[in-house]
């Protein structure tokens, strides 16, 4: 057997949160392609997300986005989710789609706009209180397009002030996770562009403020697993947004562009204590299925993470440490590659079956008829997307 | 005087084509901000473009985009433009917004979709015949997001076939210019990703097929002026799409991100015979004014090109050649930098006035009241953007 | 069995040329670390290279570099190699280490320096005539560090002229392969920086001039397999220099940085007819073992290529084509990933044994005592490196 | 007058430290070109550095590098410098050229090697005590080339421990500045790759540990002025290593590759209080003059910094703040560009003359005959470089 019993045991508790918006339409500035069966409501998104969990038992919770998932009764939405076997997870704020935010939100030079953005986060915390969500995720699109357009330094100070106000509103069991992003939608400077900035900002807030690492939000060539190791070491890795990219923030399926990088990232997660029941690191997907089917796209994604975690858990760490101490470069690298090249899929399929899950979740979902059903049922209304 | 009489003489005939779509709304996949006064029709876009020419005498023509600028009577549109002192220029095709093109257009595996895309180009040529436009510009968004999604090689062969059919339809005085782009909207492979591909494809077509170089469409670190020099040497530089970028295809104002790069590009244009009355190289803008005002954004852009051309024309080429031959690295570089650091703005302002133009076109436009007028007049309707 | 009989049959004739210089010392501008047993002579390099072939049967030839491998009698060197079971392959020229080449070689503004560089290539052709080598590989380090230092356009014209003179000297069965490189050692412009330039230059020479693709010589994010597909389509892919990189031209072990990229490259090689007995594409390594052991580093490298070729040959091309035609993005991608994730190592080990080779060449070499022997024997003299 | 009296006053105290090694030979891994007159001793390097100050009054101190500048009597070396009008500045350690450091120095898995590296820094502090230097600069080349080669997390912990030991040895008026670098000489992971890591490490040490920002040590596209603003805000910007780059760590003349970037960096320095008599930020050059003359290369460099500082000081900050508050994107950007495009050279030349300096230091040095004299005098011996 390629995958050890111990590895399987450790995989049992793996949970990867799904983003509700992955089930809606997405695209580029050039075109958003629509697809039959796309959800029109938060409930339909959650129903689709529940399918992913049904076939994989890997995604017991769904992140929501305010206002994209705005409803009148969040407690009812939570009960709806629970009836489908999932819970509501991280609440994501949105300060990039109101006309008021053209020149910034939490960093805006105008205190009224800043307060509006702070109030929006208060609203998100209210939602969290209703849904029982523990994490408030802040991805800040703030930035400028031209040198001189904004005062980089002043914006950073205002950001610190705004975040402090939001942080003060959090409950005792709630966290704020601050996501960084290299660029886009701003094209000259971004106010939280790198892990260092997110780290400096959340460190100033307190213990329940953490960094969110989106795997697609780095400069070309960045060694992401190094950042993982560093943030775990500093006790500030709050959560992951998984996806993959060849160029910019492509938001492709996690593991699709550079599977070996995903392996190395997961290895450092495990190495640094970020994996397992004692870890507080949250694992999420944040992807766009622009041209592929969305539910299978999410199934493929959680399976990719599961399979790669199995490989990363399989590294012979004792032999690796020995090779590292001996300065045996090829030997140490070979131990990593052995684990990476191991084909864990057969063992995982058998293990899934032993747990009452389909051996091949992709095939099982395709055979379920769910996609055809929603394509037939969901007629009329407005398909969900980023604008709604 | 910093700018020589000879340089001023050479600047007289400078013409930079404006894209009609620069006057409509644009943005990112996250948000398109609208602005008061944004045109609702092709006519209103042309009217705005004519303002740029009125204040600068630098932009006598306007590129149109089909179907964004679709009208019933192109001849009438041309007369409308001429009444405003401009002409209609390059016709840009669009094969990226129809649902049929989700998996490609000219490269699509399905011959019916390919024919649909070819027919669209035939339609564009029909428009050219009515407007008297000489250039058909093909920017191909075709590509794939995942390894295996498409057959890279087969798509290239089909592209060649499709382009041949389009090329065959061109009139004797018409050209096809094929734009390349590193990535976006496709995130794994793009069918025309680099100048080499565009060059190979247009070389197979014939003398009237040329490469279009968009300054924002390259990998990080690419030496663009080298490509300019090479394409001029090979006789295949058809046109420029000017803009600037810090990261990806940011589409910022030309010269805004790296003015020295613009200087070097224009120097190689001049060095290679691409500037002046005998050149067939077409100069265009292709930008997005996501957060700044659009008409002043275009005025600023053509002025940037004019000012940088003045600097590039000021290089002491005799001294430069001598320094190069002598292996005088610092001397040769110093000659380039002398021209770049020369402040040509005062001389150009005086020269503008001598030609009956405002010394400061930005101020003159602001003082004209045009922006307030269109903001007041253009009420109702749907503001133009990329989707319309 | 994971690897099919047909795949094994196709693997039988695989040959990957080794660079003699991989067995000498290499490093960075900061430090070259020396290691016990490093060859002092061309003969010792060839002896080490022969070990790689002895344990893998994958590397029947050795590329040499003039003047690093300069000897009095190349025919004797060839016989020496043959006695060890290998042949001499590609001859690599060097026009970057003579003081005369500070400002260029084949592109130099001074005709005397150009002639010196051309003469060096004539000398290389003389060597080829003695060794029976078929390929003359030209990697041109020419370029400039500062804008203005050289005349980009003029240098390109002189390059064309110099190459034409070299090409004219080639025998009927000899080829010139022109390698491109994004940057380094020049830091502003490089005279052959991209595949387009190499393609344009070799196309002007004739049928026996081809492009050499070094996998480490591209801008960040470049889709290398696209270039492979394009060059094969254009009939101009002459050879590969295999290595891998995370940042610049890191010259790491092939497949070490991004194994999935190597898979995609080899898939396109096979797809485009570049693999197998009818192909004229030459496969070489070009790597630096700065910190790892050199002979095992080369063994690991050829095994990486072999294993990844086995995976690439395993792609179900019929199913893939069907999925591509159906627009089944996830299905098509899944077929690629299935092949990539297949663990071919057990089958290849068995196959090796069936051919009288060690199942695990790395272990077998380690057990052979060769490394200890050369460390003990090669005392005194000057270890080979790039300077010698 | 373009440059205001206030700006000139602020320029009076500008000081840019020169690196002694800039006067020795440097190059790439492919070739180090030597030049007539290159120093053979620390004294000769200092003599050359003093020439830069003599002609510019901009570089009153010289950084030294141990062991490249090892002498028996540092006090005597200091007096020698003072006789030439300069002082000894930052002491740079070197833990990348001893064979013991092949797999790391301060991060090495072997405590003996770590202690050796710590001891080397103690030696550097001893030198500082003799020279009166205030800054100990640590650039750590530590890293690995292959995944698995080292334990990223453990290395980081060991680094913290080693740095703490070094920091404890510092005198009350001494600082430790920790330089970060994206990559090279390590090609997979670097132990101090980004500002975040340097910031986290120095923050753990204490008030006298600071970050060193080398302008060439970032991923492609990184907004360096943002980092400047952030580090100043956090009170942790210790020093600059100025140079410029198009690709990797090219170490070209500061301002040569992207003068506008230098302008933006200096603007943020001034904006954040990093410029002027109250600032503790140290400004240094760290460049390689591989193909250009070294003394003029350094003169050109300090002039570039001076001229660009003059431009950055000329920004109309009151108007800029007003435009920023008004959301006037083009206006705010225009204010920045106005300052950047101002030609300050004539005013600075006049100001230099008023202070008894040559109007054109490049010309004055060329006319001085110094280069010819050292070329004639410095015969024999071994030219200084990175290996000595």
From TrEMBL, chains A, B, C, D:
An example molecular function term from Gene Ontology annotations: metal ion binding
One annotated GO biological process: rhamnose catabolic process
The gene that this protein is the product of is rhaI
Protein's name in the database:
L-rhamnose isomerase
- PANTHER family the record matches: L-RHAMNOSE ISOMERASE
Question: Does the record's keyword annotation contain Manganese?
Answer: yes
* Gene3D superfamilies linked to this entry: Divalent-metal-dependent TIM barrel enzymes
- Enzyme Commission number(s) of this protein: 5.3.1.14
The protein's matches in SUPFAM superfamilies, at most eight in alphabetical order, are given as: Xylose isomerase-like (SSF51658)
For this protein, the record's InterPro entries field holds: L-rhamnose_isomerase (IPR050337), Rhamnose_iso-rel (IPR013457), Xyl_isomerase-like_sf (IPR036237)
- Record NCBIfam families: RhaI_grampos (TIGR02635)
Q: Which domain of life does the protein's organism represent?
A: Bacteria
Which of UniProt's keywords are assigned here? Isomerase, Manganese, Metal-binding
